[in-house]
Amino acid sequence: MVERLRLTEADIEGVQPMVSAGLVRITVEDLTAVPPQHATSPDLDILETLMFNLVNAARLEHVLRWLPNNQLKWHPGLTAVARGHSADMLKRQYVSHVSPEGTTSAQRITHYGIQYLACGENIGIVYGAASHSEAGIYEIHKKFMNQPPKFSNHRGNLLNPLWTHVGIGLAYAPSGALVATQNFISTI
To answer: With 70 as the cut, is the pLDDT of residue 10 above it?
Structure first.
């Protein structure tokens, strides 16, 4: 079993930026996770709303209509957590449900003070031309929905009738990357 390198605040406290041949500069800021984000750009707000509408449209089509949770409610706190995770993955260049420090989606949600019975998370990323527009949202959604119909993947998570609320957070790099996080919870 391979152990991951884990940096703590004590490891980097007082460390000055490191420069190697003038090419690489790593600062404490580079190693710091992005906290929940309450606001984003108007363009990302529009794309988050589009993704929310696609999620609920898919649920309307595939989840039994008589179930009380076939349409999810928007949760501003979950959205802030999702935005923070998307921004963190983009900033520190990783794609995972678990941060480099080992923080899980459940821990991120709980740390923000959100109470729930169960939680889940989908993450997706698109690169290139599609990342600059709505096309990226449609591409990520299509990738999720084209997975086999079972509960153990993105599609199953998105359609899980247990969920009551969702928060969707996007992060964008003009160089051509769009990162999406969908956080789901079931409330009491």
So the answer is: no
